[in-house]
């Protein structure tokens, strides 16, 4: 039985087959969840990321998880919010879709996401949650390997936004 679950927590502690990193296009680390993932994974993660030559917004690249409990890290730069008329919605959907495709390709059964773009990148939380929930559910309808997707929220406000979106979506 496939499932989508929303939880409160620190994604660096989650033992999923893959955790997703809300990266920037350099893939060389940054603040927020990106910094936390690099700190927890250790310097080998940055070493591997250096060889990837960055990643365009909405696309995704995969590395090993090193000292993390997760086997893989999938790095995706979400869009920076610029008012909404710079293809932000489409790019955020691409980040979720391409991350999930990569997880499927690598045989991952469980995948954990942070709330991509809703921190420093300022994507409005309610709109981002709708895109994330819709894209994840659509993907789970046809995935073969990926069975469980977890949305790991770092604060209560984010968790509540995703829970509300999920209950609207399922009703
Ligand atoms: P972006 O640049 O894509 O906006 P941020 O890292 O600034 O990325 O924020 C994305 C979301 O990740 C925010 O909701 C932030 O609170 C959350 N976050 C920060 N640290 C962690 C963590 N360790 N685990 C899960 N989520 C986190």
UniProtKB/TrEMBL annotation:
User: Which terms in the Gene Ontology molecular function aspect does this entry carry?
Assistant: deacetylase activity
Q: What is this protein called?
A: Macro domain-containing protein
> Can you name the source organism?
Weizmannia acidilactici
Name the PROSITE patterns on file.
Answer: MACRO
User: Where are the membrane-spanning stretches?
Assistant: none
Identify the Pfam families for this entry: Macro
* Gene3D superfamilies noted in UniProt: Leucine Aminopeptidase, subunit E, domain 1 (3.40.220.10)
Domain (Macro): give its ranges. 1-170
């Amino acid at each position: 039985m496939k499932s989508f679950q929303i939880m409160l927590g620190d994604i660096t502690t989650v033992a999923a087959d893959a955790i997703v990193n809300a990266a920037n296009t350099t893939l060389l680390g940054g603040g927020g969840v990106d910094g936390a993932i690099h700190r927890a994974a250790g310097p080998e993660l940055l070493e591997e990321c250096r060889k990837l030559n960055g990643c365009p917004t909405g696309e995704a690249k995969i590395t090993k998880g090193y000292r993390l409990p997760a086997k893989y890290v999938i790095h995706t730069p979400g869009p920076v919010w610029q008012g909404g008329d710079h293809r932000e919605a489409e790019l955020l959907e691409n980040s979720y879709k391409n991350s999930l495709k990569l997880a499927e390709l690598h045989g991952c059964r469980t995948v954990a996401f942070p709330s991509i773009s809703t921190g420093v990148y300022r994507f409005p939380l309610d709109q981002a949650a709708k895109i994330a929930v819709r894209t994840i559910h659509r993907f789970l309808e046809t995935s073969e390997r990926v069975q469980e997707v977890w949305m790991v929220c770092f604060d209560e406000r984010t968790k509540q936004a995703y829970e509300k979106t999920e209950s609207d979506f399922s009703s």
